[in-house]
Amino acid sequence: MASAGRDDDSGLNGRLDRAMAFLDRDPAQALRGVESILASDPDFLPARRALAHVMRRQGNHPGADQVEREAIAVGIARPGFAAAQEAFLAGELEKAEVLIRQHLRQDPKDPAAALMLGEIAARCDAKQEAENLFRRATLLAPGYLEPWLALAKHCRDSGRYPDALFLLDELLARKADHLQALSLRAAILVQLRRFDEADAAFLELHAQCPEDARGWANHAFMLKTVGRQDDAVQAYRTALGIDPANAQAWWGLANLKTVRFGEADVEGLRRAFERTDLAADDRIHLAFALGKALDDNRDFAGAFAAYSEGARQRLEQVPYDPASVTGHIAKSRRTCTADYFAERRDWGSAARDPIFIVSLPRSGSTLVEQILASHPLIEGTEELHDIERIALACAPNGGTGGWLDTLPSLSRDKVRELGDHYVEATRRFRHSDRPFFTDKMPSNWVFLGLIRTILPNAKIIDVRRHPMGCGFANFSQHFNWGINFSYDLAHIGHFYTTYLRQMAHFDAVLPGYIHHLTYENLVQNTEAEVTRLLDYLGLPFDEACLRFFENDRAVYTPSSEQVRSPINREGIERWHSYRPFLDPLAAALGPVLDHYPDYPPGEF
After folding, report:
1. Cβ(494)–Cβ(590) under 8 Å?
2. pLDDT, tens digit, for every residue of 548-565?
3. What class does CATH assign to 323-595?
4. Following DSSP, what letter does each residue of 233-261 receive, concatenated?
5. What is the pTM of this model?
């Protein structure tokens, strides 16, 4: 029996071409011709795909989709395709490309091959070629759903969210219970902050795929973000009812901070943690959640052991070199001198609307942002990445603090252009006409020299917390990404000290530029500290700032639920329960610990 790739394919292809020539004027004749070819060779895949095309032309779309999917299933099992797929899955992209192109020479209209070649192009950052190939696959076989999903992901990653949503709607019209499409649609709507639509999308996901624990956990995170805590807890618990070892749900509950785990939760977490089939990331999430559960039950030694195990595993994934930040800040101090700023006194953007809140994580910056976002003249955005992007763009050759090598050589016009660009780029996060907005990216303290240069009228608020309280809060918090210093107590101490060196330097070269407040003073003397803060910003006092917990804005950080409650002292002294285990942190802090909240005298 003949099949694709054999010597007599040219004859079959000729018969197929003649049959399809009737499609426009006599579809029934085209159908008879295609069926005749398949009767003689059922494995001739071009004819199977042509049959789907004819069926779709006659209005039988479901039948056509089914024929296409069956053809795909047969095609991907063929030796040529299978060899290319094996190389692709092994990450051998060059080998996979050679093999799949050989396959395409035999069957140029194979949609699965077009999809694979598109995936290879995407991996190689050939974005336009990838998109073209994904689109070709959808045209070759509209009932083949994977290219629609790949194209939707491509559009999402390119920031073309409306296009992505349109493609997902097209896919879901063909298969309403497609789990990945439903999940991606909900995720995009969350990204777009269209929370009501995202909520509806999650409800559709649950209706179509009620046993998808990940969908329930993702919905819970969205509900937490918009302040629907009770609904979030219920969704997390639903996920755990489906999958008792679901690490995302356990960690989500722990990360709410307001849920207290009972003994049954401790046992459930222990059973989940003891499983041998866990992915590395799931094991880390469960370790930190178990630490929170044991802390709730006042087993501080057990909690510290669980936190330490999670931190150990995470540090193996993301090794951290303290010299990376100390070298960066040393270069900042050498470059950003009083003379440097004096020479550029009237440079930069004239914009006065940005308010930067900088800190170490877990220092109270989310609380400060929530207070300011309750003022009628200030819009709270979120943790924006635009300053870092500008810094990286100024450092084409990379390296530690590469942007500092370029900064002194920037012209007056370029400096103003960068400042104006920041203001324009961040407008996408502003949804009101309030004249001021917050950028609460904690790590922007590294880029203070850049901020002052391009945005000289911006305000900087430094939020500081007791180094032991801040240090342990970081150690016991799993951040998922970006905060790699937090998985070792000594690293945390060195990082805190480096942060303080940066602040001391800018206080020396630009006195009064930065407004400093401590978390402890804010908790103990809230009204006085808020008044002092608003005076620095040049804004009138507003009572709404004291009732920040009534603000229903979306909050994305681990402190989201805490800032929806009135200020209390809970958590300030938590680190004392762990003092016997924190010697490495205290040793790394050295004189910083002894002089908090002031700077140590001299060099430190």
Report:
1. no
2. 888 665 655 555 445 445
3. alpha beta
4. HHHHHHHHHH-TT-HHHHHHHHHTSSPPP
5. 0.83
